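Figure 3 (text version): C-alpha cells given as input.
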C-alpha cells in the first residue's frame, strides 16, 4: 500500500527493505533528484485509536540515520544529493474492512 501510494505521487522506488547490521530502511524512493528514506509502520486497529507514528521514536530515528549513512556510502551517493526521512502509517481496521494511510514528510 505504501509503495502504491508513493508511485501514485510520482516517486520512483529505488530499494525495498535495505538491511544492514546497523538497521533497515523500509523504502528508498526518489523524486525531483531527492532521496526519500521511508519508514513504514502498520497496525491492526482494535477499538481505541492508536497512532502508528508513536513507534517512530528518537531511538528508531538514530538507528535509521546510521543505516541511511551506510546506504549513502555504499551506493556512492553524491554529498550534494538532498535526502529526507519520511514516515508512512497504515492503520488496518478489520471490522470495517478498510485501511487508512497517513504520511509525515521530512520528519527530522
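Below: residues designed for each position.
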Amino acid at each position: 500500500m505504501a509503495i502504491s501510494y508513493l508511485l501514485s505521487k510520482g516517486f520512483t522506488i529505488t530499494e525495498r527493505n535495505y538491511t544492514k547490521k546497523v538497521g533497515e530502511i523500509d523504502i528508498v524512493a526518489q523524486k525531483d533528484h531527492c532521496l526519500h528514506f521511508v519508514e513504514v509502520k502498520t497496525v491492526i486497529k482494535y477499538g481505541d485509536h492508536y497512532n502508528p507514528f508513536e513507534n517512530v521514536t528518537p531511538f528508531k530515528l538514530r538507528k535509521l540515520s546510521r543505516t541511511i549513512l551506510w546506504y549513502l556510502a555504499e551506493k556512492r551517493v553524491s554529498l550534494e544529493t538532498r535526502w529526507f526521512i519520511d514516515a508512512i502509517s497504515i492503520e488496518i481496521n478489520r471490522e470495517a474492512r478498510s485501511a487508512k494511510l497517513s504520511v509525515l514528510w521530512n520528519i527530522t
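The mean pLDDT is 91.
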